[in-house]
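Hey,
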Amino acid sequence: MATQRVSNNIRKLRFMAGEMTQKTLAEKVGVARQTIIAIEQAKYAPSLELAFHIAHIFAVPLDDVFIYDPTD
C-alpha cells in the first residue's frame, strides 16, 4: 500500500518573499510558529482553508505551495 504524502515549497517561498520568518508567516495566517515548522517538515498536513491562506500570502496557486504525491 502506497503512503500518501503532501510536501511543500514553503521554505523556498519564504526565502523568495524577502526571507520571511516562520513567525511572520504564522502570524499572517493565524497559527503558531510550531504549526508552520511542522508543515514545512511534512509532519503535519494543513487544513484546506489554511493551505489556501498560505498560498494567498505568497500570491501563488495552491499547487505552487503544496505537492501531493500518492506514490511517495
